[in-house]
Structure formats: structure tokens, C-alpha cells
Amino acid sequence: MRAAGWSVRARLRDLVAASDPGLLRLAAGLRTVGAIALTLAVLSLLGADVRHLVAGAIAAMVSTFAIREKQRGRQAVTLALGLPVALASVSLAAVLHSRVVGGDLFFVALIFCAVYARRFGDRGTALGLIGFQVYFMSLFVGATVSALPQLWGVVAVAVASSAVVRFALVPETPAGILQRLREAFRARLAQLVTAQLTLLDAGPDEIDKALQDVRDGTARLNETAMMIQGRLEEGTADEAVARLVQRRIADAEIAAERLGLLLLTARSAERADTLTLHLPGAPVPPGGRLPVQEESTATLRRDLEALRLLVLRPVSEDLGTGLAHLRNRLLGYRDEENLPKASPAVQDVFRGVGEAARAVLGLRIALGGPQDDTDDTPSTARSREELDAEDAAIDAGEEAAEEAPAGLQRPTTRAAVQVAVGSALAIVGGEFLSSQRWYWAVLTCWIVFINTASTGEILVKGYRRLLGTVLGVVAGLLLAGLVGQHTWTAFALVLLCVFAMFYTAPLSYTLMSFFVTAALGVLYTLLHTYSLSVLVLRVEETALGAACGIIAAAFVLPVHTDRRTNDLLVTTLDRLADVTEAAIDQLSGGEPAELLDKARDLDQALADLRTATQPLTHPVTPLRARRNTARYVVALLETCAYHARSLAAMAELLPTHPSIAADPRLRRAGRRILGNIGMIAARVADGRAAVEVETGASIAALLESDLRGGSRYGRITDRVLRHLQRLDEAVVGLARPLKVPVAAPKR
Question: What are the backbone angles phi and psi of residue 636, rounded to the nearest 5°?
Fold first, then answer.
């Protein structure tokens, strides 16, 4: 019974960890709801009326979610600075309450300063957000000069409650977040192996869904790896330990992605270079079975189950004799003599299982320290020796800072001007709709500019906010009818909506807007201003604010989606060239470089590009040809990134791995790949650039022709050659959709 209870708890814990990496969304929701609840409790004990309770709830919410810094000390300083900013904001709102023109002009100036402050980092962003939102709160509750003393007290209570919840009730430390992210990575890795198991057994009618699950699992694993990368510096005191964890996370991610590709190749009887590009409906053997003997299929299924068990067992627990035996068997597949009799494609899958088991072993050692090695086989012992040698070779490096653009070309300056113009339009238009609630249009205009960088992104965000608002109005009508004038029931519903808002915000902007509007319907009820016309006005003001934001983005210092995506595409190609050049140089005998950092920079650039292309790939876009081109280009870049990451990981093994050694002939192959990446980047940056992409002999042939009469490949492994060949083909493949001429092969 105790074992069964542990199993259920472990599964639930892994499910939560995988769905919310680091429990960041859960913590943000609990922290905000806790701050609001504590504020309401204190204010009710002090005898505050409903209007001040609403003001306190909004102020507590703002002072909690505005703080984004990772170090607790910096959070405390920012929160302390936020109090005088909030007090000044509410005071100015009250003073300007009866001065329409002056108040509007100041509001526009405040909006400009709040957005411009983002250039000063997380603290500037937080203080700007607090200043704007508290001013908005003052307009919402109708702050006046006579009510200022009470409002000052409300704001002070809200900020104090936020501090108590943040630092005492729901504490958050960089080390604790990093630990939870590690657990999330392990849980998501187990989910990916489960999806790969499903892909192995899927029939013809199920393979498309199974393949999509593997794609999604791979993307979620990469997302968690990048989140860990962003937390390593603050969450780990020892730089060497941080580098070790970073390396082991990268190894496990690459091994899991490669295992999925090998499984896909074996299933579809055709080469798979990337999970993204493999189209649904690929040839599948009759009956949905692998084209191998039944015995090999059963063995592969058993070994994938064993790999999943190794991943699922918590690092803090001893593996035990049974799981140690499974680990030894899987690591044995790294030796050719231990591979089962099967087709070459399926034998590659077994090799992939062995490499994945090695990555899991390295991950367990990095996260939990030395493991029991009493039951090790020679294959396992050799894997440990390789891991130990790699650990000893890890060293830290530094990256050069990039020069930021200045003047109006600075993103924060441009956004500040655009938001100020859009807000001015929203104020004028909002006054025509309602002289009392025009600020909803300004709020929408402000929000659609947050975390957006092009006209297309603003258009998509405005559409999603409007959709969420319309749906939220319907929910607000229902909730307002249910609660009536029951104050504490209404506040309980508001807290639920606030928690849902923060929990769903990273997942769906539409859902977040839905919960915000539903909560506002209840707040209007508390303020005795609820009516159907008010909620309809909310939709109208939202539509107006989104339209003003789009107009400002389109005509004031515009950054068109094409320009934005081209800039990010050039950045991604530059990062791809950096990783490839550094990896090839190290594989050719050059000096060691910070390859994993460069690989993560490539991942981040690709993620930014993927986000920027959302307006082009959105289902409602009328330009179907551009949508297909954007998807195809991103998919090819994901292929390039996978092979570049794999090369970088193998290059870092050079000092320690017996089967990988430097080969200077690789530089010739690298020149063609890097030259082609540069040509494509130049053409994207300048459509008139006279460039051509070079094609010709395979990578293996280039190596062979460099040293005639010598060994064909030297000591470089077949895997390095395969990754180079696939990378070369994918880079050349980018030329056609990007309209880059391809030179005829040289004879």
C-alpha cells in the first residue's frame, strides 16, 4: 500500500512538474491571490468600504506581478521603490481628476515614461508598470483629493501585503526554482519517452497523432532546457556546477531528440532529418508494425520502457539492483557486439537508446552526485569514466556584449512613442464613447504593445484580447447575476479569476483576457455600476484601444512584420554560423570555445523568430503562400539547429571521448557550409545582393579528396559526418524559399 501511494504521489508530482515547469505559473497565481486576500483581510479589519477594498485589491495585484527580478534582494529594493511611485501616481491622479485636458496630457506623458523605462531592465519595467496601473486604478475607483489619505493607506497596505506574501508566505529563491525546473525537465523527458513508445506501437490511423505528440514533447523539453539555462547563473553558487548541469541537460535533450528521429526513420522506412519537416501520412508498413522481426520489436519496446523507468526514478533515490540491471543493459547498446539482430534502421534505434541511457546517467550524476557503481558492467563503467573525464574538462567562459541601437531605433524608445500616440488616439476616441470609462481603451492600447515588436504581432494580440473580452463579458454577466450584492462571495470569485488569469497567461492570451473581463464584471457589481450596457461598452472600448494601437504601430515609426522577421532571420543565421564555425573549428583541432552557450543563443534566436512569424502563420491569415513559406523556413532552421547542437555537443567530447578525435579536413567542408549561411544571410538582409549558394560533392567526398590515398574518414565518427551532411543539405534547402540563387555544381 505504501509503495502504491508513493507511485500515485510521484505520478501526480511529475504531471504537475511537467505541465508547469518550475511551478512558476502556480507560484505567480498563489502569490498574487495571497497578496490580494491579505490586503482585503487587513482593510476589512480597518473598516474600509467596498471602493477602497477594490482599490486595495488592484494595487496588491499590480505590486505583486510587476516584480520580475530573480534575486530576492533586488525584488525587495524594487518593491520598496514601488511604494513612493504608487503614492505619487495616485496623488497626481486625484489632483488631476477634475482637470480633463491636464489629466489626459499627463496620462499620455506617464505612458511614454512607463514604456521608455523598460530600457533600464526589470526594475525600470516594474516601476513603470506600477506607475501606470496605479494611475489606472485611481481612475477606476474615482480617486479625489479629499480621499487621498485613505488611498495612501490602502496603497501602503497593499504593498506591505505583497511583500509579506512574496518573502514569507510564498517564498521564491533562485535555487528553489532551478531545482523545480530540473524536476520538470526530468518529468518532460519521461513524457517524451512515453510519446516515443506510443509512436513505436501506433497503427496507420494513429501515427499522425503519435508523431505530433513526439513533436510537442520535444518542443516542451527544449523549452524547459532554455528555462534552466536562464536560471543557472542565479540558482547555482558554483560556476563549475552550473556548467556541468548545463552540459548534462544539453546531452539529454539532444539524445532524446535523436532517439525520436531514429524511431521515425525506422517507422516510415525513409530518412527523417527533423520531426518538424516529416509530413503526416508518410509510408508506414502494413499493420502499423516496424519492418523488423517481432522479437526485435518486443525488445525495443521493453528497452524504451526501461529507459522511461530510469528517467522517472527520482535522482535522490538509489536505483536498486533491478533498475541497475536495466541501466547496464541499455548502456551495453553503445557496443556493437551487444546490438540485437535487426535491420540497420532499427539497430540505429538501439544505439540511440544506449546514448539516451548514457545521457540519463550523466544527468543523474550531475543532479544527485555520485551513484552506486557496485553492479556496473564494463560498458557502464566505461560510460562513467567518460562522464568523469568530461566533468573534469568543464571550464567557464565569457561572452562579448552586443552593441545596442540608439535613438529612435532603440526598441524601447520606438515603443514609447508609438504607445503615447496610440494612447492619445484612444483617449480622444474613448471620450466619444464614454466620458466616464474612456480609460479602458487606453489600457487595451497599452497592453497590446507589451512584449510585441511588429505591427503583425500587435494585430494578432489585439485580436486575441478582443476575443477574450467578448467571451469574458458573457461570463461576467453570468457571474454578476449569481453573486448579486454578496461582497465576500464576489471577492472570492475575483480571486479565482485572478489566479486563473495568472496561471493561464503564458499559455493563452485569449484565456487571460477572458478571466480579466469576467473579474471586472464582478467588480462592477461591487461598485454598484454593473449593467449590460457597461459590459458592452467594455467591448467597444477594447476594440477601439486595439484599433488605436494597430494604427499607431502601422504609421508611427513602424516595424513591419516582414522587416522584423527578416532581422530575426538574419540573427538566427548568424547564430547558426557561430555555433557551426565554433564546433567545426574544435572538431578540426582548434581551441575550445563556449559551444553550449552559443547553441543556447541559437535556440533563443530561433524561438524569437518563431514568435515573430506567428502573424504570418496564423490560421486566419489570407496569404496562404507566405504562411506555408514561413512554416517551411522555420522548419528548415529547426533542422539546422538540431544538427548544429549535435555537432557542438560532440565537439565538447573531443578531450575525453575515445571514438572522437580532431580531423583538420573538416575545415574544408565547414567553409562551404559557413559560406552558404553567409550568402543566405546577406540576401535576406539585402534583397539586391548578388550572391549564390554553392553545391557540389557530399561532405564525405570533400574529406576524402583532401588527403588522397589516406584513410577515408580518419578518426572522425560517422555521426559527425551525418550531421555535417544533413546541415549542408538543410542550408542549401533554405535557398529556394528565400529566393537565393543556387550555383550549378562544379564538375
Answer: -65, -40
Whether 202 contacts 210, CB under 8 Å: yes
- Taking the C-alpha atoms of residue 137 and residue 439, their distance in angstroms, rounded to an integer, is 10
Distance of CA 474 to the CA centre of its chain: 32
The residues facing 693 across adjacent strands are: 742
Please compute, for residue 455, the number of CA atoms within 13 A of its CA located in the half-sphere on the CB side: 16
State how far the Cα of 9 lies from the Cα of 564, in Å rounded to an integer.
46
Residue 304 and residue 189 in contact, taking contact as beta carbons nearer than 8 Å? no
State residue 693 phi and psi, 5-degree precision: -90, 135
**Range of 86-95, 404-413, 586-595 with top mean pLDDT:** 86-95
Burial class (CB in 10 A: 0-12, 13-18, 19+), 745: exposed
**DSSP notation for 72-84:** HHHHHHHHHHHHH
Q: Supply the DSSP string of 360-428, one letter for each residue.
A: HHHHHHHHH-----TT--HHHHHHHHHHHHHHHH------PPPPPP-GGGSHHHHHHHHHHHHHHHHHH
Neighbour tally for 205: CB within 10 Å: 9
Long-range pairs of 142-150 with CB within 8 A, sequence gap ≥ 24? 142/51, 142/97, 143/55, 143/90, 143/93, 143/94, 143/97, 144/94, 144/97, 145/94, 145/95, 145/97, 147/94, 148/90, 148/91, 148/94, 150/48, 150/52
Q: Which of 181, 176, 106 is nearest to 139 (CA)?
A: 106
Write down how long the chain is.
747
Distance (Å, whole) CA 582 – CA 593: 7
Collapse the DSSP code of 693 into the 3-class scheme (helix H, G, I; strand E, B; otherwise coil) and give the result.
strand
Prediction pTM value: 0.79
CB count, 10 Å around CB of 671? 14
Q: Residue 292: pLDDT band by 50, 70, 90 thresholds?
A: very low
Contact residues for 582 (Cβ-Cβ < 8 A; gap 6+):
593, 594, 595, 598, 648, 651
One-letter amino acid at 639 equals T
Distance from C-alpha of 509 to C-alpha of 618, rounded to nearest angstrom: 14
pLDDT per position as a tens digit, 469-514: 888 888 877 887 777 667 888 888 889 999 998 888 878 888 888 9
Question: What would the pLDDT profile of 95-145 be if each residue is shown by its tens digit?
Answer: 988 787 888 899 999 999 998 998 888 899 999 999 999 998 998 888 889
In order of 553, 605, 712, 713, the CA distances from 719 in angstroms are: 48, 26, 14, 11
Q: What is the dihedral of CA 385, 387, 389, 390, to 10 degrees?
A: 160
Nearest Cα to 199, choosing from 185, 187, 182, 216?
A: 216
Scanning the structure block, which residue is given the C-alpha cell 550555383? 743
Nearest residue to 637 via CA among 570, 682, 590: 570
